[in-house]
Amino acid sequence: MSLGGKHIVLGVTGGIAAYKAAYVARELLARGAEVRVAMTHTATKLVGPLTFTGLTGTPPVTDLWDPSYAGEVHVDLARWADAIVVAPATANVIARLAHGLAEDPVSATALCFDGLLLVAPAMHHRMWQHPATTANVATLRARGTHLVGPVFGKLASGDEGVGRMSEPLAILDALTASLAPTAPRDLASLDLEGVRLLVSAGPTFEALDPVRFLGNRSSGRMGFALAERARDRGARVTLVRGPVALPDPRDVEVVNVRSALEMEAAITARREQLDAIVMAAAVADFRPREIAADKIKKSDGDDAPTIELVRNPDILAGLGAWRASRASERPYLVGFAVETTDLVASAQKKLERKKVDLVVANHASVAFEGDDNEAFLVARTGVTPTGHVAKTALADRILDAIRDGLATRGSLGAPKS
Ligand code: CTP
To answer: How far apart are CA 255 and CA 221, in angstroms?
Structure first.
């Protein structure tokens, strides 16, 4: 979608990712937006204001008290803006936005503004996980602020975790999606309000050497549809995504992983806090026993190498066993089964073997590509055929089953530990 004619204020705050804000500005302009930039003092230390002057043709606002400006610059900027994008948004500025503090050009402009505010957090993962930040983010979300990211990856400190700013193109996609006209939100459809749901999506890639891997054809579309529909129905969603070419959904915590072991670690770290987990990912059952440190070379005359595989953990079965060991019904567990024969019978076996609540069984011929699917929802209470439906409609049917399952257990809307 084009942003033709839209007035966008880009708020840049003092995280290392500030250098990527120049790329965000350039992409906004490329999509037809008019861009004005506001920067905090710290941001000006990390990226030169002149960069933004060069890109947008207008000097950024870096000082609320600039004597050369006749009016109140934050008021004028907010009046001009159709949307404000804060990228990167530090923990500090998120706290200021949540509490209505207005001591810098970015937060002062945001406080004058009642339109679309999109925030792209970037910080060390410990700051992101701190209860203070969690509470501030919840305040912003409750007020209608949109968030994109942060995502999992290498952080400025060298540590790894959820805290990296979403990539500029993902921020642009989130902005265009947020600005797209949508049907008025039907409050009655917020039936997953307060539910904490994790969805895994896409394939896993199992490395052979620094450039090669074993993978599969999973597109990730089913898992993404589940994450987006759950978000629209009020759930707090974490999407653990293997390598797929889809843009990050907005207002969803996105954790990027590559291998089955990384996926398992990301899910295990969160499982205590969740009401439901849907394993829509096509997790590789096997991985190479060893990952060659250097690229494997062919040498003339040699036979083809033999690659020895070892089993990956079955993440879903592990979750089922963990839950059974605690004699708990939380989180509600959903698996997928792709079969070529005996769809329902195989799914029923999987339900028992993996100790889960629901298995979504689909035929291999429809499971991977395309926007449609045809499935059976297999639970202990019965089998429901879905007929031929779009992946978003199937996502809703699965979420209905989760909602009903949680309600039966009395955990829908229950206070969370
Ligand atoms: N799954 C998982 N970890 C694995 C493999 C699969 O969590 N290592 C999950 C998938 O995300 C899916 C479900 O288990 O939700 C079913 O996986 P599938 O590969 O269809 O079944 P398997 O258990 O591998 O059984 P089989 O290969 O016999 O069909």
So the answer is: 16
216 is catalytic: yes
**Amino acid identity, residue 92?**
N
Q: Is the CB of 378 under 6 A from ligand 1?
A: no
Is 147:236 a contact under the CB 8 Å cutoff? no
CA of 175 to the centre of ligand 1 (A): 35
Residue 338 near ligand 1, beta carbon < 6 Å:
yes
SS3 state at 73: helix
Beta strands across the sheet bearing 372-379: 253-256, 236-241, 196-201, 276-279, 332-339, 358-363, 372-379, 382-390
Q: What is the pLDDT of residues 153-209, one digit of tens each?
A: 788 888 887 788 988 988 998 898 788 765 444 444 789 998 999 999 999 999 999
**What gap in Å lies between CA 57 and CA 31, rounded to an integer?**
16
Spatial separation of the C-alpha atoms in residues 152 and 155, rounded to whole Å: 9
How open is the CA angle 327-417-316, to the nearest 5 degrees?
45
User: Binning pLDDT at 50, 70 and 90, where does residue 413 land?
Assistant: low
Walk me through the domains of the chain, giving residue ranges and CATH numbers.
Answer: 7-181 (3.40.50.1950), 189-292+306-408 (3.40.50.10300)
C-alpha dist (Å) from residue 327 to 248, 330, 331, 355, 407: 35, 9, 11, 12, 18
Distances (CA, A) of 173 to 107, 166, 179: 23, 11, 10
Pocket lining: 315 vs ligand 1, CB cutoff 6 Å: yes
Q: Which residues pair with 89 in a beta bridge?
A: 121
Element (H, E) at 201: strand 196-201
Mean pLDDT of 261-270: 97
Do 205 and 243 form a contact (C-beta atoms < 8 A)?
A: yes
If you take atom 24 of ligand 1, which residue's CA is the nearest one?
Answer: 285
For ligand 1, atom 21, the nearest C-alpha belongs to: 337
Q: Report yes or no: 179 and 6 within 8 Å, Cβ to Cβ.
A: yes
Distance CA 238, CA 42 (A): 31
pLDDT, one tens digit per residue, over 93-107 is 999 999 999 999 999
Report the DSSP pairing between strands 116-121 and 146-147: parallel
- Whether the CB of 316 sits within 6 Å of ligand 1: yes
Residue with tokens 């459809």: 189
